[in-house]
Design a protein that fits this description.
This protein has helices at residues 3-24, 29-45, 47-58, 63-81, 119-130, 144-160, 176-185, 195-202, 226-238, 258-267, 276-286, 302-309, 350-363, 377-386, 398-401; strands spanning 88-93, 98-104, 107-111, 134-138, 168-170, 188-191, 208-210, 216-220, 248-254, 270-272, 319-322, 341-347, 367-373, 389-394, 416-418, 427-429, 436-442. It is an alpha/beta fold. The strands form four sheets. The protein has a seven-stranded parallel β-sheet with strand order 10-11-12-9-8-13-14, with helices on both faces.
Length: 458
C-alpha cells in the first residue's frame, strides 16, 4: 500500500474514532466504568492465549511471566480505577467554594511497545474509556497481530454494552509515517516506547505523555538481609526475561559484604561472570562496539543470552551477573540491559554508594527509578533526595512492583513518566487522571480573604 493510501486510511480511522467519542462524550459514570472494566476483564480471562501470543509474535520475553502480567495488571488496574469518579462533578472544595467538573480529552493515540503488546494497550484503553475518550493504537511492527486481536476482542465487549465499537481502533497498516500522522491528528498522545518514538510524540504538536529510558539503580544497605535482598533483586531482574524497564540494572553492595552477596546470588540461581576476559565478552555481546544494545539478546532468557554471546551458562540460570570496571560512562555494563543481566558493584560508605547510583543515572536512565534495600529510613530518604528519579522502591523487587503492586501504593500502570529529567511532561505513574480535562467552577467568598493588604505580611 502506498504512503498516500496509508495516510488516507489514518484520516478515516481518526474520523471514525472522533465520531464514536462524540457519542460517548456524555456517557454516564456507569457506562464509562462498564467499558473500562470490560477491557481489563477480557485480558484477565484470556491471559493464557494473549500472554504466549505476545511472546511468540514479539520474539521476546517469557510466556509464563506474560501470562502472569496479563492477569495481575488487569486486576490491579481495574481495582485502582473502579471507584473513581470521572463524570460530572468529581470534587467539591467547600472551603474554597469551588467545584471540579471532569471532561474527556477526545481521541487518544496510544503508541504501543513491542515489549508489552497486550497489557499496555489494555491499560491505556481502560484509562481512556474511564474518562469517556476514544483510543487508537499504533502497534509496533512486531506486535501487529496481538494488537489486531485485542481490538477485535475489545470491540466485541463494547458492542455487548451497547457502546460504539469504534471507541477502540488500531492502525491497520503500520509504519513510522502512519504513526506520525496518527499522532498529529489525535487530541492527546500516550507514547510508551523508545526515546525516538517519544521524541516524535513530543514533536507532533499535540499534548503528549511520553516515558523515559529505564536504568534502575539499586543499593543494598548494611542492615539489609542479604538473602532477602538477593531474592528480590533476582526476581525483579529476571521477570519477563529482563524486558521490564523497572528491572534492576546495577546493584551496589557494601564492599565488606560483596563476596558474601555474590555467593548468595549464585545460590539463588544467578551465574556470576568472573575475569576481565569473560566480562569483556559479556559487555561486547550486549553492546557491540560500545553502540546500542544488540537486538539479538533483547528479551532472551539468561541461558539464551549466554549461548548467543558465547558464555557457557548453567541450565536453570535466572540472571547473569558481572562487575563493571568503572561507574557511569566508563563502562557500558552500567547501562540499561533489556535481558536478564545485572551489574554488581561494591561501595564504601552509604553516601559513596548513592553517589555511584547518581553517576550511573547521569549516564543513562535519569528520572526513572531506584530501588533501596534498607531498614534505615534516613538512608532511604537520603537516596530519594539525592537521586533524580520519579520512583524510589523500598525493600521490594523493582521490576515487578514499581508499576503498582498489592505490596505498595504506586499507581498500577505500564506507562512510567520520568519528569523533566527524562524529557517527559510528567513524573510518576500514568493513569486515567492524565486523560481528563477539568472545568473549575468558582463562587465568590462571602468575605474577602485579604481585606487589608497589610494582612498578607502578618
Amino acid at each position: 500500500m502506498s504512503e498516500e493510501k496509508k495516510m488516507a486510511g489514518v484520516a478515516e480511522l481518526v474520523a471514525r474514532s472522533r465520531a464514536a467519542q462524540k457519542q460517548f462524550e456524555f456517557a454516564t459514570q456507569e457506562q464509562a466504568d462498564a467499558a473500562a472494566r470490560a477491557v481489563c476483564k477480557i485480558v484477565f480471562d484470556n491471559a493464557q492465549t494473549l500472554g504466549p501470543m505476545a511472546a511468540e509474535e514479539s520474539r521476546m520475553g517469557c510466556e509464563a511471566d506474560k501470562i502472569a502480567k496479563c492477569r495481575n495488571k488487569s486486576a490491579l488496574i481495574w481495582k485502582s480505577i473502579k471507584d473513581k469518579k470521572t463524570v460530572g462533578v468529581i470534587r467539591r472544595i467547600e472551603e474554597k467554594r469551588m467545584l471540579e467538573v471532569a471532561k474527556p480529552v477526545g481521541v487518544v493515540a496510544a503508541v504501543i511497545p513491542s515489549t508489552n503488546p497486550v497489557v499496555t494497550p489494555m491499560g491505556n484503553a481502560a484509562s481512556a474509556l474511564k474518562t469517556r475518550n476514544s483510543i487508537i493504537f499504533a502497534p509496533h511492527p512486531r506486535a501487529v497481530k496481538c494488537t489486531a486481536l485485542l481490538v477485535e476482542m475489545f470491540q466485541a465487549e463494547l458492542e455487548k454494552l451497547g457502546l460504539p465499537k469504534d471507541l477502540i481502533l488500531g492502525l491497520e497498516e503500520v509504519s513510522i509515517e502512519a504513526t506520525g500522522e496518527l499522532m498529529s491528528a489525535a487530541d492527546v498522545i500516550v507514547a510508551t516506547g523508545g526515546p525516538g518514538m517519544v521524541k516524535a510524540a513530543y514533536s507532533s504538536g499535540k499534548p503528549s505523555l511520553g516515558v523515559g529510558q529505564g536504568n534502575v539503580q539499586c543499593i543494598v544497605d548494611r542492615d539489609a538481609d542479604l538473602k532477602d535482598a538477593a531474592a528480590k533483586i533476582i526476581l525483579g531482574r529476571s521477570f519477563d526475561n529482563g524486558l521490564i524497564c523497572l528491572g534492576e540494572q546495577t546493584a551496589f553492595i557494601p564492599e565488606e559484604k560483596f563476596d558474601e552477596f555474590v555467593r548468595e546470588f549464585k545460590a539463588q540461581g544467578a551465574f556470576y561472570v568472573e575475569g576481565a576476559e569473560q566480562t569483556a565478552k559479556l559487555r561486547e555481546g550486549i553492546f557491540p562496539g560500545g553502540g546500542p544494545i544488540s537486538r539479538e539478546v533483547v528479551g532472551l532468557s539468561a541461558e539464551q543470552v549466554g549461548e548467543k554471546i558465547g558464555i557457557q551458562v548453567p541450565a536453570g540460570t535466572r540472571v547473569i551477573a558481572a562487575t563493571a570496571e568503572k561507574v557511569g560512562s566508563g563502562d557500558d555494563l552500567c547501562r540499561e540491559k533489556l535481558c536478564p543481566v545485572i551489574n554488581l558493584m561494591p561501595y564504601g560508605s552509604f553516601e559513596e554508594g548513592v553517589a555511584k547510583m547518581v553517576e550511573n543515572l547521569e549516564f543513562e536512565g535519569k528520572g526513572h527509578s531506584i530501588a533501596v534495600h534498607s531498614n534505615t529510613p534516613e538512608h532511604v530518604e537520603y537516596a530519594a533526595i539525592q537521586c533524580s528519579v520519579s520512583r524510589c522502591i523500598v525493600n521490594q523487587p523493582a521490576g515487578t512492583t514499581g508499576g503498582g503492586s498489592p505490596t505498595n501504593g504506586f499507581t498500577p500502570t505500564t506507562t512510567l513518566g520520568c519528569g523533566s529529567w527524562g524529557n517527559n511532561s510528567f513524573s510518576g505513574n500514568f493513569n486515567y487522571e492524565h486523560l481528563m480535562n477539568i472545568t473549575r467552577v468558582g463562587y465568590p467568598y462571602e468575605e474577602s480573604y485579604l481585606p487589608d493588604p497589610e494582612m498578607a505580611w502578618d
